[in-house]
Write a structure and sequence with these properties.
Elements (H helix, E strand, L loop, with lengths): L1 E5 L4 H10 L5 E6 L5 H14 L4 E4 L3 H9 L9 H17 L5 E4 L7 H6 L7 E4 L1 H4 L4 H9 L22 H10 L4 H11 L9 H10 L21
Helix pairs in contact: 8-10
C-alpha cells in the first residue's frame, strides 16, 4: 500500500519524515500561503540537507481565492480552510495519481493523545498512521534531536502553520503581533473584503491595536501555546 507522509513544515513533521521515510513514499506539503517566511526557508533547507523530495501542493488561487469563493473567513466552528486547503487538495492530487487507498502518516506525538483520539476518519480506504505516538516520541525528544542538526526552524512553535490562525486564540495572536505587527495586514484585508471576522465580536485590526498598547512586550513567544488543539494536516 502506498505511504503518504504529511509534512507541515514544522520540526515535528520534519522529524517524522526523516525517521520513517522509505524510498517511494510521497512526502506532501500543502501550502496555505500563510506560513511564516522562516517556515519556507526551513522546507528548502530540509530538502537540501536530507535529500528527501517534498511534493508541494496549493489550492488554486490560495487562501485569498478560497475566502472569496466562500464569501466568508473561516473560524473555530467553520474550519473550511483546513478541509479545502489541505485535506481536499491533498486528496485530489493523490486521486489523480490513482491512489484511492493509502497509509496516511500524521505527526501527532506521544504527548498529544487528544489529537490522536479526536482524529476522525474522513476518507474511506485511507488508513491514518501515528508513528510518533506509537513509538512514544514526545516534544522534548524532538527538540533534543534538532539541537544536533546543522539547520533549524528559527521561529517559536506558536508561529507554525498559518501565522495568525484563529486556533491559536486571541491572546496568542496579540502576543505574536507585539513581535510581528506586519503579519496582521493580510488578515485584516480578509476581514474587510468579506465583512466577516475570524473571532466573534473582535477584528484582527483591533487585536493589533491592543498589541501596541500592552505592557507585556517582553513576554517570550516560546512560552505561548495555541488555545485550541488543531489537526491542520492532510
Amino acid at each position: 500500500m502506498k505511504r503518504v507522509l504529511n509534512f507541515s513544515g514544522g520540526k515535528t513533521s520534519a522529524y517524522m519524515v526523516i525517521k520513517y521515510y522509505q524510498p517511494g513514499d510521497l512526502v506532501i506539503f500543502c501550502d496555505t500561503g500563510r506560513e511564516h517566511p522562516s517556515t519556507y526557508k526551513f522546507i528548502a533547507d530540509f530538502e537540501k540537507n536530507e535529500n528527501i523530495p517534498i511534493i508541494k501542493l496549493a489550492y488554486p488561487g490560495g487562501f485569498e481565492k478560497l475566502i472569496e469563493k466562500k464569501k466568508a473567513v473561516p473560524n473555530q466552528f467553520m474550519r473550511f480552510c483546513t478541509i479545502e486547503l489541505k485535506i481536499k487538495t491533498c486528496r485530489k492530487y493523490l486521486r489523480k495519481l490513482g491512489y484511492y487507498k493509502y497509509e496516511n502518516f500524521i505527526g501527532f506525538r506521544y504527548d498529544e493523545p487528544l489529537r490522536v483520539k479526536r482524529r476522525k476518519q474522513i476518507w474511506k480506504n485511507v488508513i491514518d498512521i501515528f508513528p510518533l505516538y506509537n513509538d512514544k516520541i514526545n516534544k522534548q525528544q524532538i527538540n533534543d534531536y534538532w539541537k544536533s542538526k546543522n539547520y533549524q526552524l528559527d521561529i517559536p512553535s506558536i508561529l507554525g502553520n498559518c501565522t495568525l490562525c484563529f486556533m491559536k486564540g486571541k491572546n496568542a495572536i496579540i502576543n505574536i503581533l507585539m513581535h510581528y505587527p506586519e503579519l496582521a495586514d493580510v488578515w485584516i484585508k480578509d476581514e474587510k473584503n468579506t465583512k466577516r471576522t475570524y473571532f466573534k465580536g473582535i477584528t484582527i485590526e483591533q487585536l493589533k491595536n491592543i498589541s501596541t498598547n500592552t505592557l507585556f512586550k517582553d513576554y517570550k513567544l516560546e512560552n505561548i501555546n495555541p488555545a485550541f488543539d488543531c489537526a491542520c494536516t492532510s
